[in-house]
């Protein structure tokens, strides 16, 4: 899947869109092989890969390193570069320039959080310039301080209407799809049914046009916290931890490296080493 048209086609055919995040080359290779519908190089990597407590501390230049790694690993996939905090908030020119850097780094599209007059102008300028934009509404981590924390959004009819109104404006401005994060399933369903473009849910129930989750969450690799909406398909944390312990034990007990994992001199050269002295 290489273009935004595939997103719309899947929605129009009532086929769900399956997206995941990736931050590195080898994970990207796995997602590419699985033909996942879209790969987001999310700014969640600030927390998941870099250990920050939120997503505020990552810059556009840092994001570009991860976008390049993912694009080398997933050359057949539709890759979306997540614009980090303050890389698009200052002016339309700043946002457009940084969006261009994402595309040059190998992304096919970008993602922006929120909806206000500035965001709408930027969405228009990006799409007019050939840069597809994925919107992001509901809980928007980059706006956490003004939202008042990590909170479920769209819990009352007027809030649902507000989100739908923003979604329609983003659709009108040119977004090819919108992420809906952390909201009651009924709210996301209502918003999805009233849009032409697809919605991609995360913690927003099953009736969005598609789903996205953080890959490290569903693989059980990131364990600092696990949101309620995460289903674990593996427990990589335990697998990695057991493997590291086994390696350490084997080194201490001189089990690793064995003959099999070692290189050996040929017989003639070995002979020269006999007696602990090198006979040249
Ligand atoms: O940064 C991120 O990974 C996201 C998601 C939608 C998962 O924004």
User: What assembly state would you assign to the polypeptide chains in this entry?
Assistant: single chain
Structural class: alpha/beta
User: Can you give the mean pLDDT?
Assistant: 96
Number of strands: 8
Q: Please, could you describe this protein's structure?
A:
This protein is α/β, with parallel strands linked by helices. It contains 12 helices and 8 strands. An 8-stranded parallel beta barrel has the order 1-2-3-4-5-6-7-8, surrounded by 6 helices. Helix 2 (25-33) crosses helix 4, helix 5 (92-104) packs across helix 6 and helix 8 (157-173) packs across helix 9 (185-193). The radius of gyration is 24 Å and the shape is elongated. The mean pLDDT is 96. It binds 3-methyl-2-oxobutanoic acid. Residues 21, 40, 42-44, 82, 179, 181, 202, 212, 214 line the site of 3-methyl-2-oxobutanoic acid.
List keywords for this structure.
alpha/beta, 8 strands, binds 3-methyl-2-oxobutanoic acid
Write the layout of secondary structure elements.
Blueprint: H1 4-12, E1 17-21, H2 25-33, E2 38-41, H3 45-48, H4 60-73, E3 79-82, H5 92-104, E4 109-111, H6 117-128, E5 133-138, H7 144-147, H8 157-173, E6 177-181, H9 185-193, E7 199-202, E8 210-213, H10 215-218, H11 236-252, H12 267-271
Parallel strand pairs: 1-2, 1-8, 2-3, 3-4, 4-5, 5-6, 6-7, 7-8
Helix pairs in contact: 2-4, 5-6, 8-9
The chain binds 3-methyl-2-oxobutanoic acid.
3-methyl-2-oxobutanoic acid binds next to β6.
